Q: What sequence folds into this?
């Protein structure tokens, strides 16, 4: 039912945007550079998306700020800026 926007905050001060499925409690697998791009793909994600530049793929640690829960919550996740993929974890408690 409820989806929420998330911000991916990188140590260098840049940020990207993502989507969280509050019904299944899982993060969507894509990271977007702009809010417009996020809105275009809202609830229409490509689950099979792969890195299009595997040799340049770089998982960067970021802070995931989830706006779904009342005051919001945060956790550490990994995003590749080049291909726009979010690698996990899927939610705040499902850590490997
Ligand atoms: Zn990549």
A:
């Amino acid at each position: 039912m409820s989806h929420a926007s998330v911000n991916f905050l990188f140590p260098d001060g840049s940020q990207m945007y993502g989507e969280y499925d509050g019904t299944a409690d899982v993060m969507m697998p894509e990271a977007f550079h702009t809010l417009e791009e996020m809105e275009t793909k809202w609830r229409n994600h490509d689950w099979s998306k792969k890195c299009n530049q595997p040799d340049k793929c770089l998982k960067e640690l970021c802070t995931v700020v989830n706006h779904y829960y009342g005051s919001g919550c945060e956790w550490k996740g990994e995003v590749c800026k080049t291909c726009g993929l979010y690698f996990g974890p899927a939610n705040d408690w499902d850590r490997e």
